[in-house]
Inverse folding.
């Protein structure tokens, strides 16, 4: 329940190794008060990375913990639960099954985010706990399934990356569950070679950015710093806030000499990390070597703390903190990277929004602001595939959007935009098409609506001359909806293209589409839609 503009929100970070909860009360000035936080080890990625399949017991543990988190947040009268899942979930071939299970058993809708989006949220969380000013810092977060690397100052990031390197992922790759003895130097060097090969391009890009300090986050780094403080500085002179490379080497040598059972008893260690601590250490050890870091400062903040900052930024007034502006900037960056025709793209996006608002006003659909925003972005990106070739450019546009790791979006939002663009002309979405079939029932319905509106909008600027200025739907009778088109100049090609979409309009909205141009009704074409029989 809100009071005087305050709202209570629960944030869940469902990681590969641990699940974290943060419950906050937001204030009208975008500040927030922390009400509770919790962390539980779930080992969601346990046994997954062999075949990229989440295991039944791991999903069961995660569902139980998420249910516990939801109930705790509700105990604080949370009005909303914002939940994201990271590496283990995004790599899993059975992620849809898992998400449905979380919805059914835990009562929470979890969004899967890309690696770069994870890096961005981590940057928000960690940087907000530092006083950097214009000082540039390197951020490293080592999770169970991935490692995120960011370079940024207090206000913005300059580089984001996510590597498929994580403590559980590497443990699965280099160890069997039956191996519980010491780790040989040869085995450790083999892990390091893999880390080096996987991170070489990232290292090459980060080095020239000239950061002045390194900051590490995540349970692996926190635990290594705690072990180093006790092992290397038993007198108490060591700090758990800093991990030096020299101390890390000492810790690694000691941990490798022990069995898993002995490791679990090392002062400072979290016993639940005894098996995966060495693969995690190999990641930071290698990165510190290759980046020539003498030390790394440790932060107890991370993705969980970045989520409320990102969520509450939606009500902000400054551009860099405005969430929607940030998302749109991410979209435009992709468009510019693909050399899109910006004037045409923006006009199609604007016409798409006019169609969305007008069709909602006359009762053709009941979609809301989230879907409206995705339609605008699909309009901006609908032709970016031409960068590769005009032939099959819709499929190329789909591929670019699906694989660009757009920041600020979850996987479902990206999929909706990509599939909408795929069907913005010619073929109508059908269950037999794999790109469409991968969406759940609700989002298939969303795409059918959005793609029809987008194909109408694209047709309205067929000549790329922006001659159509305004469009508005008007109900005629129970079976017919008319689209009134206002144009300045010749738009016969646009009208002809509109008529080609009469069938898909009727298929989606169960209404016949009639047209008028500058107040004059246009005679309906006698030929059937040429694109529906074969599609």
């Amino acid at each position: 329940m809100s009071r005087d503009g305050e709202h209570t929100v629960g944030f869940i970070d469902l990681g590969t190794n641990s699940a974290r909860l943060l419950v906050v009360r937001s204030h009208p000035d975008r500040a927030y008060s922390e009400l509770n936080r919790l962390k539980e080890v779930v080992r969601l990625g346990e046994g997954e990375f062999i075949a990229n399949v989440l295991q039944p017991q791991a999903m069961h543990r995660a569902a139980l913990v998420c249910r516990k988190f939801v109930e705790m947040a509700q105990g604080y009268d949370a009005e909303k639960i914002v939940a994201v899942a990271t590496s283990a979930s995004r790599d899993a071939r059975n992620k849809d099954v898992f998400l449905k299970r979380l919805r059914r058993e835990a009562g929470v809708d979890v969004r899967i985010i890309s690696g770069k989006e994870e890096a961005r949220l981590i940057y928000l969380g960690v940087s907000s706990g530092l006083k950097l000013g214009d000082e540039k810092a390197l951020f490293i977060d080592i999770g169970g399934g991935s490692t995120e690397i960011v370079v940024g100052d207090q206000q913005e990031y300059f580089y984001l990356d996510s590597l498929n390197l994580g403590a559980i992922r590497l443990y699965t790759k280099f160890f069997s569950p039956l191996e519980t003895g010491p780790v040989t130097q040869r085995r450790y060097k083999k892990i390091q070679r893999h880390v080096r090969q996987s991170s070489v391009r990232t290292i090459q890009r980060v080095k020239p950015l000239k950061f002045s300090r390194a900051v590490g986050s995540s349970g692996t780094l926190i635990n290594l710093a705690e072990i180093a403080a006790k092992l290397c500085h038993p007198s108490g002179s060591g700090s758990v806030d800093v991990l030096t490379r020299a101390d890390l080497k000492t810790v690694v040598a000691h941990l490798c000499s022990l069995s898993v059972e002995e490791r679990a008893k090392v002062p400072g260690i979290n016993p639940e990390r005894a098996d995966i601590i060495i693969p995690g250490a190999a990641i930071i050890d290698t990165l510190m070597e290759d980046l020539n870091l003498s030390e790394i400062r440790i932060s107890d903040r991370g993705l969980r703390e970045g989520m409320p900052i990102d969520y509450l930024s939606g009500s902000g007034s400054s551009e860099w903190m405005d969430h929607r502006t940030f998302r749109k900037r991410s979209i435009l960056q992709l468009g510019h990277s693909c050399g899109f025709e910006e004037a045409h793209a923006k006009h199609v996006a604007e016409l798409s929004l006019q169609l969305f608002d007008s069709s909602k006003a006359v009762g053709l659909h009941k979609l809301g602001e989230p879907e409206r925003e995705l339609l605008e972005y699909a309009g901006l990106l609908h032709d970016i595939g031409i960068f590769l070739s005009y032939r099959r450019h819709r499929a190329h546009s789909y591929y670019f959007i699906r694989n660009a790791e757009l920041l600020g979006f979850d996987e479902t939002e990206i999929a909706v935009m990509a599939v909408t663009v795929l069907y913005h002309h010619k073929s109508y979405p059908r269950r037999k098409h794999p790109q469409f079939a991968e969406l759940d029932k609700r989002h298939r319905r969303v795409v059918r609506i959005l793609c029809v509106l987008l194909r109408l909008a694209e047709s309205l600027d067929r000549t790329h001359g922006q001659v159509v200025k305004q469009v508005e739907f008007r109900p005629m009778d129970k079976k017919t909806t008319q689209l009134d088109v206002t144009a300045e100049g010749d738009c016969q090609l646009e009208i002809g293209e509109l008529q080609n979409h009469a069938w898909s309009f009727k298929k989606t909205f169960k209404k016949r589409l009639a047209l008028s141009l500058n107040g004059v009704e246009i005679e309906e074409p006698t030929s059937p839609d040429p694109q529906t029989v074969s599609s």
